[in-house]
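debug: dumping io for the single-chain case to check the tokenizer round-trip. Nothing else runs in this session.
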Amino acid sequence: MSDKKDIQLSLSAYTKILCHVMQYPYTAVNGILLTKEGCEDKEMVEVVDCVPLFHYNIPLSPMFIVALTQIEEYASNREMKICGYYHANEYYSDSEVGAVATRIADKIAEHCEDCCLLIVENDKLSYLSSDVPIKLSSLPRRMTG
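debug: decoded output
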């Protein structure tokens, strides 16, 4: 089964992501996307919030695992859960999904039925650009059982 859901990004999550990216324009940034608990049956993944994490490339390390554990606790106390990962590459013209982003999104998808990956397209962050600087994609649903 590999059907994908549409993704809706709240204004709050969108703003936090862009602020994180613009605060650290000289390095890669990443964070975790959150959705409301109990929305698995809906036709789309609604990203209602995000938690900015690091502003440098970080592979799956103990620090990242601890951060995920803390975010899970934070989210569950607010009736939310992790639904994905966002990443902005270090270089202005680089909007490719790299190995680190793929590994982290895959790790999250192991525990999340409707995981999504959001890549910030740095070259569209200019005030002259009318394009949305975000590329969203849902990862294929995983078979359970």
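debug: round-trip ok. The two ends are 13 Å apart (CA to CA).
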